[in-house]
Amino acid sequence: MKKFAKIMAVMMLVALTVTALVACGYPADPAKAQEQLEKKGYTVVALVGGTDLAGKASQATLDAQGLLYGVKAGELVAMVSGTKVDTDKKETSSVSILYFSSADAANTAWESDIMKEARETAKENGQSIKKSGKQIYSEGVVKDSSK
User: Which helix (H) or strand (E) is 120 found in, with range?
Assistant: First the structure.
């Protein structure tokens, strides 16, 4: 089980690549967060549950990920992730935001073993994962170390 948790923590870190926190946070509306990131030059992928076929498919994916964090189906309601590559600076910036249906659901996810391990791993790498209300989010920059 510990090996599974470590693998899942690494997978989450890939999804949440983190190093710094934006003080003002992100919009509570996933569509506005997506728009904000796109205006800043990020390539954005958003999963938002809904009643149409695409929304139901997205919700199924969100529910599966939510189970990893110990939340019930329907409590992880959206995920917005964006990346931006700066070839001049040789770095890639990324942002990930998890939206929960309530602060209690976000707290449950925050206290899950997989999230605790992800925060520890992030800290070891000089990175961080933050929670605010109904959101858990991260922002990071990875520099290209190749020559």
Answer: helix 113-124
